[in-house]
Design a protein that fits this description.
Shape: globular
Strand content: 15-25%
CATH superfamily: NAD(P)-binding Rossmann-like Domain
Helix content: 40-55%
Strand order of the largest sheet: 3-2-1-4-5-6-7
Number of domains: 1
CATH architecture: 3-Layer(aba) Sandwich
CATH class: Alpha Beta
CATH topology: Rossmann fold
Order of helices and strands: EHEHEHEHEHEHHE
Distance between the termini: 34 Å
C-alpha cells in the first residue's frame, strides 16, 4: 500500500473532530503536517498530542473565509515544510434554522466558511501543486448536500463543495492534481454532540449499520484518497454514512 511518508499535508479545521482524526491518521503514516484552525486552543492541543508521537507539525491560525489568511496558510507551509502535496478542506461551521427563521447573517457565515473557504484554500494550494505537477485535494462535503431540514445554508454550501470538486477535477487533471470529495453521514463529533438525545436516537435508528460513524472512519477514507493508491480516482464524491439516506 502507498504511504504518505514525507508528504506535506495541509488540514483545515484540524483542532477537533474529523480534522483532528485525519491529522492523526496522516501522522501515523509519516506525513508532515500543517494544521490549520481558527480556534488556537484546540489547534494547540491537537498539535501537542501529535508532536508527542514524533509527528512533524507546524500550526497556522487562520480564518479560511479570508483570502489573505488562505494565502498565508499555504505560504507558511511552503516556507517551513518546503511544499504542499495534500490539502484536506475540512473546516466548517453550522448555524441551523428553518428557512422561515434563518437570518441573513447566519446564512452568509456558513457559506463563507464552508464554501468560500474551500474555494480560497483550494485555489491557493492548487497554484503550488500545478507548478510541481502533483497534488491531492480532498474536500469534505456531507450527506446534507442532498438537503436537510433546518440547514438551507449548510446544505447549499456542501452541495457547492461537490460542484467545486468536479470542476477542479476537470481543470487540474492536466497538472497531475487529483480532486475528490468525501460526504460523511452522521458522525460522532463535538458538532453533533449538541443534538438533543431524542433527535440523535432517531437519526441513529435510520442508519442500517446501527451506529453513528466515528471520525476515524472518515479519516481512513480521506487517507486513501490522499494516497497514490487512489491515483485513478478523480472528481468523485464518496459517501461514508453506514447506509444512511436522508
Amino acid at each position: 500500500m502507498a504511504t504518505l511518508k514525507g508528504k506535506v499535508a495541509v488540514i483545515t479545521g484540524a483542532g477537533r473532530g474529523i480534522g483532528r482524526a485525519v491529522a492523526e491518521r496522516f501522522g501515523q503514516d509519516g506525513a508532515r503536517l500543517s494544521l490549520v484552525d481558527l480556534d488556537e486552543k484546540t489547534l494547540s492541543a491537537s498539535a501537542s498530542a501529535l508532536r508527542s508521537k514524533g509527528v512533524e507539525i507546524i500550526m497556522v491560525s487562520a480564518d479560511v473565509s479570508k483570502a489573505s489568511d488562505a494565502a498565508r496558510m499555504i505560504a507558511e507551509t511552503v516556507q517551513k515544510l518546503g511544499t504542499v502535496d495534500i490539502l484536506v478542506n475540512n473546516a466548517g461551521i453550522v448555524r441551523d434554522a428553518s428557512l422561515l427563521k434563518m437570518t441573513e447573517e447566519n446564512f452568509d457565515a456558513v457559506i463563507a466558511v464552508n464554501l468560500k473557504g474551500v474555494f480560497l484554500c483550494g485555489q491557493a494550494a492548487a497554484r503550488v501543486m500545478a507548478e510541481k505537477k502533483y497534488g491531492k485535494i480532498v474536500n469534505i462535503s456531507s450527506v446534507a448536500w442532498r438537503g436537510n431540514f433546518g440547514q438551507s445554508n449548510y446544505s447549499a454550501a456542501k452541495a457547492g463543495v461537490i460542484g467545486l470538486t468536479k470542476t477542479w477535477a476537470l481543470e487540474l487533471s492536466k497538472y497531475g492534481v487529483s480532486v475528490n470529495a468525501v460526504a460523511p453521514g452522521f458522525i460522532s463529533t463535538e458538532m453533533t454532540a449538541t443534538i438533543p438525545p431524542e433527535v440523535r436516537e432517531k437519526m441513529v435508528a435510520k442508519i442500517p449499520l446501527g451506529r453513528a460513524g466515528e471520525p476515524q472512519d472518515v479519516a481512513d477514507l480521506v487517507h486513501f484518497l490522499a494516497s497514490d493508491d487512489a491515483s485513478y480516482i478523480q472528481g468523485e464524491v464518496i459517501s461514508i454514512n453506514g447506509g444512511f439516506q436522508l
